[in-house]
Amino acid sequence: MKLIKVPVIVTICLFLCIQVFTIRNVTVAAPSAMPLEALQEEGVYIEINKRSNTLIVYVNGRAHYYFSVATGRRKELTPVGEFHIVTKIVKPYYVRKQIAGGHPKNPLGSRWLGISVPGTGGYTYGIHGTNRPYSIGSYASSGCVRMHNRDIEWLYRHIPLGTKVIIKEK
């Protein structure tokens, strides 16, 4: 068996590309990424950038997981500030149009992570799935943060109640 020597710089560039290369809607996590169990520990928070429509999961101050999202159609619809995850719902019921959770016409998708916007109890603004996956990456919601269902299901499994959520303009 013949071993091929790869220059160190090529190896480093390849590693860094894997760290930050985004495939359409979710960044590929490199093998060196933090183990998922670490997400349950202190130092985990979510940052949502409305300008780039991205959601980043930070672990101990370092960005580890990246997702594309959709935010409010107008700048003022998605609240800005520091909040916390206060509700978690599987197959959320869409109250406004009385659509059962799990129904294909339900715009909330498969999961809901409600955020603590004052006066809402975690049931008005949230991070949720969608039945309109083509909207991800755009400004399309009524104020919530939309994700692909597979992405919100991952977040739902790994992000506990009480997790800090920072929503920024830029």
Explain how this protein is built:
This protein is α/β, with parallel strands linked by helices. The protein contains 2 helices and 12 strands, in the order H-E-E-E-E-E-E-E-E-E-E-E-H-E. The chain has helices at residues 8-20, 149-158; strands at residues 22-23, 26-27, 44-49, 54-59, 62-68, 71-72, 81-90, 111-115, 126-128, 139-141, 145-146, 164-168. The strands form 3 sheets. Strands 5-4-3-12-7-8-9-11 form an 8-stranded mixed β-sheet, covered by helices on one side. The chain has a two-stranded antiparallel ribbon with strand order 1-2. A two-stranded parallel ribbon has the order 6-10. A hairpin with a 2-residue loop joins strand 1 and strand 2. The longest helix is centred in the N-terminal third of the chain and has 13 residues, at 8-20. It is globular. The termini are far apart.
Structure, briefly:
This protein is of the alpha/beta class and 170 residues long.
Structural topology:
Blueprint: H1 8-20, E1 22-23, E2 26-27, E3 44-49, E4 54-59, E5 62-68, E6 71-72, E7 81-90, E8 111-115, E9 126-128, E10 139-141, E11 145-146, H2 149-158, E12 164-168
Parallel strand pairs: 3-12, 6-10, 9-11
Antiparallel strand pairs: 1-2, 3-4, 4-5, 7-8, 7-12, 8-9
CA gyration radius, whole angstroms: 18 Å
How many strand units?
A: 12
**Class from secondary-structure proportions:** alpha/beta
Distance between the termini: 52 Å
Q: Fraction of residues in helices? A: 10-25%
Shape by Cα distribution:
globular
What portion of the residues fall into strands of 2 or more residues? 25-35%
Strand order of the largest sheet: 5-4-3-12-7-8-9-11
* Uncertain spans: 1-34
Give the number of helices: 2
Oligomer: single chain
What profile does the largest beta sheet have?
A: 8 strands, mixed
How do the SSEs run, as a string of H and E?
Answer: HEEEEEEEEEEEHE
Mean pLDDT: 83
